[in-house]
Fold:
Amino acid sequence: MQQLVIESGRSEKNYWTDLWRYRELFYILAWRDISVRYKQTAIGVIWAVLRPFLAMLIFTVVFGRLAKMPSNGIPYPILVFAAMLPWQFFATALSEAGLSMVANTNLVSKVYFPRLIIPAGAVITSLVDFAVSAALLAFLMIGFNYLPDWRVLTLPFFTVLAFLAALGPGILITALNVKYRDFRLVVPFIVQFGLFISPVGFSIDVIPEQWRLLYSLNPMVGVINGFRWALCRGGTGDFYMSGFILSLAVIVLLLMVGIWYFRRTEKGFADVI
Amino acid sequence: MSETVISIENVSKKYTLRHKKSGEAYTTLRDVIARQAAAPFKALAQKVSSRNRSNGSHPEGSGSPYSQNSVEDFWALKGVSLEINQGDVVGFIGRNGAGKSTLLKILSRITEPTEGRITISGRVASLLEVGTGFHQELTGRENVYLNGAILGMSRAEIKAKFDEIVAFAAVEQFLDTPVKRYSSGMYVRLAFAVAAHLEPEILIVDEVLAVGDVEFQKKCLGKMQDVATSGRTVLFVSHNMQAISVLCNRGVFLRSGSVQYVGGAKEAIDKYIDSYAQADAQHDNPDRRYGSGEYRYTLAAPEQPVYEGTDEKVISFEIERRGKLVGRMWLCALIRDAKGAVIVQYDSRVLGFWVEDSPRVKGQIRFTTPWLKPGSYRVDLSLGAAWTMDYWEGACSLTISPVLPYPTSSVPDASAHGLVFGDFSWEASDANDEFVSGGIVATSG
Structure:
């Protein structure tokens, strides 16, 4: 029979096998959050489609018509939507993940399971919205008669990247939020601020050349560029590779820092939450 | 054959209490930054006033910047060592705050021990609260899956046992209604039903019997008995001594974080009840008791060490005036059984009896009814005027001998129920008004 040793400071070698054993919990928690969202609503699931649709509409009007950002021949709504897709996913995933530990206080203090499941489950919940928005984009493309080329096959890769980009900071913030409740205010700020400094309403070409590398420290720059490249037949201009690599590095770094900090403080959550 | 499945070696758990002068419940970055910024100034001030520090609270570290808050180490568990074998049903008993739930939390891996080491062989499932993870908006059906998954059952397992679970909870009709519409009884039945169908090697249960009505408690006890007899190891925390003595073969008595006794369940319960009486007898610094303190009881003792149920019991007391003069006061005695339930209240107010002021007062309370059942009782004494001036919990204890006040007492069930004995008679006649009763004339006393 497998023996388990509990001791102060002992990092569990079987944490990752434990995560696998509790894998169903990822699905169950995500399912719970999604089911609950539309309970007792009048138009229910239609919200899932309406929200991204309205957001796209507003963006098109604001950035396309009013701000008159250039679009190099790609229909403006599609250019915006292709960037909004990963951005919305990132924003909701980060918000949900960042607050997930505290939102599940009752679970943390009464049941054992590897705590990483909680923020990860929150990010998975956002994937569902992502899927709905992606379907909406598909309709939009058909409507504008602008279909993507072979590059769209790389989309899953960029999706995973977006997932990781949200997961890293999400895990870090949620662990910090357990002890320092300030962080619940940090998240909406990042999301609001980030919307304007990420190339959602505009493309990276607008940024002067010398600043582009620095600009790519924002991990979503790489992700959004990737999405645009995959969906809009190569996007506007060449694919900015060095920026992409930098963004990639930042994503990996944030993920590692997030997981490291989370694992370090995890055992004390039940005492502090 | 009986191998050790849980081995607890010298486990301790420390919590650090921070006594804040100004109170936010949660640490904010702002506090931390403010503290760090004020650090050099605080350190200076502290060095100057350090000779005025006293008692068990101590400033965090030496020369620490955090001197505006005092910090106390609270050991919820200290040096607990224990071995539990396969198939044991172990009851953990002790007063509130003894460390039972903390120990169970550590065993369930919810929190970490500060010192010591635990080795566990086998799959553990914990039931520390009924309805963990239940979401109000989801239906009963959905919550069964949710709760089951959270407790560690796989979807396939839940599906297989779904009908059993619902039948146990008796909520078939309401399966598709959101749980927020359930009555509290239904809620608790459903929650327990899911947990009751867990099949781990080691089951940890924390006081879940405290919720729910008598019906529910009986059902729970029954189910737990099934689990216990099926050879699983069960760790059970409860204040319900009856449940413990029925279910458990071994008992652990904890007090203030350390193990006072490990052994058979019945022996542990006895030790617990004894300590209860002892501890209260030591609580006799009158000024630390509840009450405004103009007058305090200084002495309380029964005239005889043991009484029979039907005797007139006499308790002598003395009262001293400690504060300002108050015209006259009432006296009251509460008799509590071993479980803490109040059996009867003897209050001088209903007799129209008042005690006039005097620097020292001696007196007695005498009572014969109700006839107390054999066992140990605690007496709470209080006195007051328009408000309570003294409340002495556990002022003394009363022991009633096991002699029953009835002619025939060979059938235990005939006198097992109820909190007290009474003076009664039975009479029966048939339609023609002729006596049909047999045996001894049916009157007690």
